Amino acid sequence: MMIHRNRILLAGFLLLAILLTFLKVPVASSQGVTVVASLVEEPLPVNDPNAAVWQEATALDIPLSAQNVSPPRLLEASVRSLTARALHNNEQLAILVEWEDATQNDQNVRVQDFRDAVAVQFPLSQTQPFFCMGQAGGNVNIWHWKADWNAKMTTRQDVDTTYPDMYVDGYTFANTEAGAASTIEEYEDLNYVPARAAGNLFASALQSPVEDIIAGGFGTLTSQGAEGQNVQGYGTWADGKWQVIFTRTLDSEEDEDIQLLPGRVYSIAFAAWDGEHEERNGQKSTSQWVSLQLGDVVQVSTGSSGNSAVSPSSSASGSSQANTLEGMAFIFVPMGVVVAVVGLLAVAVFVISKLPDRK
């Protein structure tokens, strides 16, 4: 039987392609991209994504890919890209994020319901940690907008609103109409709601559709206390598109918040969830680090401290800094596996090619 070296070589390349596709090795982008926050003198349009002033900010299209490093993984990105714009007025920063979504998922009452969501992320160190949730020793500050929280800001969501004709056999603590469950604001005695008495964010009255979070790697997501929730948000869905605005003052009294200054360049990353595809937690589409530039760049000394997280490569060109070696471990490990397999495959092909043809 003839050994067909060409077929062996072709099989080797096919095996390599299968490995690269299966492992989905993330490759750092070589193109530097920058979201430039234009300086405006007027109040920011925090509740109007269609305001004319947004046209003064350059829209940046940012590609997203499925998070497949840590479970629960997403095999294929549902949201493949989003558009970001930013404005600031020397006091506040507003970020407008837009992406295509055929369905509006803003209900989260039933266990089979999953919400649409979007988040922006800032590193709290001078270097860039891993772009998915940061890493040990490299915390990140995350602003997480949730569509169901956005809906709850104006309308109540509960079992009776989802099933308006349901039959209720019972009574509530509050003097409400039949079928309506009591809200936490209607409990006068905090002994009935100890989580609220303890300051639990999820038991407190909702003040914003954005959750202000800290993370230092997968499995470390921690909400800031109710008193530290200082990011506002607004979202609207129409004609198959979400438009979400994040707003916060440039400076913050919270130690675990990103501190922002005009004229600086910061690292920023984005993530999006599609509730129609039951995405939640780690099942999301994420970007790599890009740059956020607040107006014209001002040269600063390297001795600055605090959570300013100024990119070491801050420049008017907006080139993004590469991930730190520690963060890149999440990239190098699967790449190392591929390189090792390819090396072994190359050795095998070389040895086989030296064998004499046999019949």
What does this structure look like?
The chain is of the alpha+beta class and 359 residues long. It folds into two domains: 1-28 and 335-359; 33-153 and 206-322, Immunoglobulin-like. Helix content is 18%, strand content 23%. Strands 1, 2, 3, 4, 5, 6, 7, 8, 9, 10, 11, 12, 13 and 14 form a 14-stranded mixed beta sheet that branches. Helix 1 (5-23) packs antiparallel against helix 5 (325-354).
Short description:
By secondary structure, this protein is of the alpha+beta class. Helix content is 18%, strand content 23%.
Which terms would index this structure?
single chain, 359 residues, alpha+beta, Immunoglobulin-like, 14-stranded mixed β-sheet, globular
Pattern of helices and strands:
HEEEEEEEHHHEEEEEEEH
Q: In DSSP terms, counting alpha (H) and pi (I) runs of 4 or more, how many helices? A: 5
Whole-number average pLDDT? 81
CATH class of the largest domain: Mainly Beta
Q: Low-confidence spans: pLDDT under 50, at least 5 residues?
A: 24-31, 300-305, 312-331
How many strands?
Answer: 14
Strand-residue fraction? 15-25%
Query: Looking at the structure, what is the overall shape?
Result: globular
Taking Cα atoms only, what radius of gyration do you get, to the nearest Å? Answer: 25 Å
The CATH architecture name of the largest domain reads Sandwich
